[in-house]
């Protein structure tokens, strides 16, 4: 099984890379989901989003890297696209997603720090955890290197793009991982859209250098997500 390898300068900015690993998923914006798309069911969407939010909280508590948290969240959205929430233990899936993300980044195991045992939820056995981990990693194509939107931010910014704007763009990117936007849009378009949104929020449109209109779909999706109750 091919794990994530270190990237070189030449392959860092790959406009064809997709966070979802499957180009055909990038078929429409969130606000136009069809009934055959499982996340068009808002109740189901909210259930999975709550799990993605727990992963964010767990990552903050255990000081996991943002990228590890984001990959774990992406695995969750990918997994529950194929599997039903009610069929699996939430604790086991969260542990497995964090463990899988750690492997993707070739970092230390997250198994012992992924969940707080004092939270009242029983920890998964090693056997059960391995099974869930296997289900998650098997759903990914390890021959396609995962890219992260943050890698592409410099492509769309000028020298006047401040650290505050950069942080805001990073926050928007982070928010895309607690919605299926991380699956639907290639990382390069997520970055472009996040930069444009950040500049717009700060009323500084002149500090960005958009390269296409393709990020408009991502921006519309994120506005749709932000407006969800």
From TrEMBL:
Name this polypeptide is given: Cyclin N-terminal domain-containing protein
Species this protein is from: Tritrichomonas foetus
Phylogenetic placement of the source organism: Eukaryota, Metamonada, Parabasalia, Tritrichomonadida, Tritrichomonadidae
């Amino acid at each position: 099984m091919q794990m994530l390898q270190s990237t070189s300068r030449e392959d860092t900015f790959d406009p064809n890379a997709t966070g979802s690993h499957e180009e055909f998923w990038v078929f429409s914006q969130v606000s136009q989901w069809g009934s055959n798309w499982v996340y068009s069911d808002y109740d189901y969407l909210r259930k999975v989003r709550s799990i993605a939010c727990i992963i964010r909280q767990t990552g903050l508590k255990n000081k996991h890297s943002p990228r590890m948290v984001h990959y774990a969240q992406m695995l969750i959205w990918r997994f529950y696209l194929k599997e039903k929430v009610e069929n699996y233990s939430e604790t086991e899936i969260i542990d497995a997603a964090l463990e899988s993300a750690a492997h993707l980044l070739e970092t230390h195991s997250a198994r012992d720090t992924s969940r707080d045992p004092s939270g009242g939820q029983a920890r998964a056995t090693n056997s059960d955890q391995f099974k869930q981990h296997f289900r998650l990693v098997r759903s990914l194509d390890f021959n396609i290197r995962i890219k992260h939107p943050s890698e592409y931010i410099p492509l769309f910014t000028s020298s006047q793009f401040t650290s505050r704007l950069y942080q805001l763009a990073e926050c928007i990117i982070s928010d895309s991982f607690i919605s299926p936007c991380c699956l639907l849009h290639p990382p390069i378009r997520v970055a472009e859209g996040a930069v444009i949104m950040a500049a717009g929020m700060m009323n500084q449109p002149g500090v960005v250098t958009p390269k296409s209109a393709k990020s408009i779909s991502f921006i519309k999706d994120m506005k749709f997500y932000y407006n969800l109750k």
